[in-house]
Amino acid sequence: MDSNPEDSNMNEDPDIDMDDELEVTEDEAETPTPTSASKGKGKKKVTAKGKKRTRSFVWDHYTRTKANYDKSKNSNQEQLDPDGMKLCRVSDAVVREATNEMIVIGELPLSFVECLAWRHFCNIVKLCKPVSRRTSTRDIYEMLVRKKTLMKKVLGDRKQRLSLTTDIWTAPTTNSSYMVITAHFIDRDWQLKHLIIGFKHVCDHKGKKIYAALIDCLADWEIKKVFCITVDNATANSSAIGRFKQQFTQVGADSLVLGGEYLHVRCSTHIINLIVRDGLHDLDKHVCAIRNGVGFVRSSTPRQMSFELRVDTAKMTRGSLSLDCKTRWNSTYLMLSRAMDFRLAFEKMVAEDKLYNDYFKERVDGTKRIGPPVQEDWDEIDRFLNFLIIFYNATLVLSATNSPRAHKCYNEILTIERNLVLLTLDPDTELKEKADDMMSKLGKYWNPFGFETEMNRMLIVASVFDPRNKMKFAKLCFEKLYGPDSMVANEMYDSVMEILKMLFEEYNGKIGSSLNRTSNASTSATSDPTQASGSSSQPRSQELGRSRNRRMELAGRTRYERMDLVYMELVQETGFQEVSTELELYLSENVENPHIFEGTEYDVLSWWKSNG
To answer: Which of 166, 247, 289, 445 could connect to 373 by a Cys-Cys bridge, CB 3.0–4.6 Å?
Structure first.
């Protein structure tokens, strides 16, 4: 198809006014020219003047003419001009508050607001002039007062019962002791929350000072209900909890659960730390030899390259060696387990690398450096890693803070104890002796019938409130530990059930509503449909007499008996079966068996939010 060259050149010529080309008269726009292509296509639209339109009015929005050239522009719309763009200044109050929050969240020193770097930053981004450290201190304290007042109102309105954890920390520079108190509770959305309610300076670590700090902190926050207090295994903490229980019971009748009998909870991770440290102390020489070997490899690049050469020749997988922190046993476990993977490479270093052997001939503080690690060291560590893996995995589970862990505590305790029992039966004499030593240390803190420190059975009760476990898991644990149908297993089962019933009765009495009471009331009101509402107060003997008379009246002269009436009489004599309480219903239902994706964790609180 041929095109008109003048039309094609029209768009290319910049001097041609497109508005002039698109301008048409009213008659031309509304009066169509008959063509063959338009025949048979239906009726045309007619304007108010009775003239036909050649095209839809929508095209008026896409065609620029002199009349509608500026129609698309909004006079109120701001135009972006790259040369005229300006920064919007944030209010001084917002910057000041955000700066204070940054100092608190980032744990920065108060002098940060006066440092040159912060002033330079504020100057570049056109922020307000930074305040002094004194002003920042005053603002942060005022922010604390506001947030504290709001939080006290939230806890007071809900009459929240809290669990507390506390520990004492000693500053390494000033040697001053500080006591931190953290509150744990479940909010309205069934989410676990943590709140630091106290950070106090204490002059010593005695029980009297700890008890006084706890009482003062709870009085300051107006907290009147406490469930349990978790502390480490220091003797001073036991004395402090005893004093606290005597004093806090005077706050109110419901200040403590079950009279504070299960108030004191010993920190599980601290117990694991004590047990493992005792074991590491016995193997300190072997651990130190491997630690020095790892330190040599990590000390310089040439030494690391020399070690990697042995790794390659030994056909081992490359990997980084981690050096532990001596005060954290879990990092020691990671170092030892990783070093065991490269045992062959370390043995090649002893046989081939002269610098490696000379390194252990050096003297440190007048004594020869321990090492290099030999076969005896590797064998002892390999044997001890069988224990450490059990405690390490338990520590990972119990030390998590973003989700509830109380319902998993007893599982980890039983896992440790069960595996130690199996190791005591190992044919390896040294391994068996080590397992016996750890079992004695474990029984000192977690023996349910211990004479020195009995295990808090609330840890077992917490596992029952996991809908996947209930009492079936606890019963299985008792049977595995003490034997099926053994006296100890039955005693443990009965004691846990007794605690559950006491907790339910105390809770049921406080809220004033019980499924059992409601069901009994409705049963007594409907037991005799022929009587008035006041008949339930009559003696049971009169009810039985009326039932027998009614049976004979219905029998008539023939004196026969109807089985349904006999059954009703039997029911009245034995009584209706009482409806189970909510606790018994929960324990009698099947356990939950949810399908959980790999890498995810079952949310116990969400289940109780939906079913509690």
So the answer is: 289
Closest C-alpha among 257, 254, 261 to residue 224: 254
What is the pTM for the complete model shown? 0.68
- What is the Cα Rg of the chain in Å? 41
Three-state secondary structure call for residue 170:
strand
| Tokens of residue 606, six digits | 């969400």
- Say how many CA atoms lie within 13 Å of 136 toward its Cβ: 21
Length of the chain, please?
Answer: 612
Contacts of 140 (CB under 8 A, 6+ apart): 100, 103, 104, 110
Alpha helices by DSSP H, listed for 11-91, are: 18-22, 26-30
Q: Which fold has domain 159-266?
A: Nucleotidyltransferase; domain 5 (3.30.420)
Structure confidence by residue, pLDDT tens digits, 242-271: 999 989 988 888 889 988 888 998 888 888
Which residue bears the tokens 């609180």? 605
CB 420 within 8 A of CB 435: yes
Backbone CA torsion sign across 220, 225, 228, 233:
positive
Q: What is the pLDDT of residues 389-440, one digit of tens each?
A: 888 888 888 888 778 888 888 888 888 888 888 888 888 887 888 888 888 8
Q: What ranges do the domains of the chain cover?
A: 1-35+45-70, 159-266, 272-439
**Tokens (6 digits) for 358:** 């000379």
Q: Rounded to an integer, what distance in angstroms lies between the CA atom of residue 90 and that of residue 97?
A: 12
Per residue in 524-540, is it b (16+ CB within 10 Å) or e — as a string?
eeebbeeeeeebeeeee
Rounded Cα distance between 168 and 4, Å, is: 94
| Structure token pair of residue 256 | 């403590």
Distance CA 376, CA 384 (A): 12
